[in-house]
Amino acid sequence: MKDKTKAILSGRDPEAHQGAVNTPVYHASTILYPSLDAIRGRVPMEYTYGRIGTPTSRALETAIAEIEGGAGCVLTPSGASAVALAILSVVKSGDHILMVDSAYKPTRRFCDTFLRKLGVETEYYVPTIGADISTRLRDNTSLIFTESPGSQTFEVQDIPAICEIAKADNIKTAIDNTWASPLYFDPFSHGLDLSVQALTKYVVGHADALLGSVTANEESLKALKNTHTELGHCAGPDDIYLALRGLRTLPTRLAQHQNSALEIATWLNGLSFVDEVLYPALPGAAGHELWKRDFKGATGLFGLRLAPCSEDQLAAMLDNMRLFGMGYSWGGFESLIVPASVHRTAELYEETGQLLRLHIGLEDVEDLKADLADGFARAGYETA
Question: Where are the domains of the chain?
């Protein structure tokens, strides 16, 4: 079955819900047991307590696992909590982990604060390291965490090469798969053990719910589920329903995000004051060949490096956009633009221009280009 069809069908069971096409929203904490044998555990119960799972949460977990190709999935209240859960399901005090230097900022903060307090050492590595990751392994390395494309600068990692090295040393691997969504990158066919998503972004797709997921292969699923239970993670049923609803239109929305983003990225790449478009789907862009090899599509998020400008010029541009809003997160129907900042420790990084992060929404592409062109003109850039 194709992924587009899985996005429509997975997790649905109308016969179990009086013929309802969509799984209903179950608001439940207490679940009643029919007998003493049941509450003593002598009779199996599919659902035992609201935090442990309901038909609503099970529907989304099943759908995400099926589309990503994993053995199972658990839900969390946010993408950041999903990252933390994935890492904590692997590490213990005294371990060493390798974290990509282009990781999502909250991921880095979790490593540098919480993990440090637990006695777990984080070492950052350059995103393009590939098979040379072998030079960073130690006897106590337990996890290699990847994010591809990377946050803000969109480097594409050689995931198969990293996973091959890791498996040879019995080291777990994980990816933040939010950019590609479950539709455009298959984490487990590329060798990964754990896949994290901020479902807040493309799966929900409407900027109105916070949600995360972690999917695991068979070998990592038990530890993931145990850690999920021990941490008491529980996603709200209404947020889960919004993600289930968003999932059904995900293939259609992603196709539009990709088409519009590629058209705008191509246009931007031809402007004299644009130093670089950081979009792996753009022919000639950094990481394009790896993206072509490993990914099934691209989404609407990319970076843009402009010639240097003053803070006043930047304000003239961004404060007066008609369609592009300034706000964090992405993956919704609306277009967004924010000034980007990069923090790196694995290698020297110096930003020479003005870095922006754009999310291309579902508006008409000509309207979006006109809004950007007007903004560039206000900042003193000439688009003609």
Answer: 3-245, 250-378
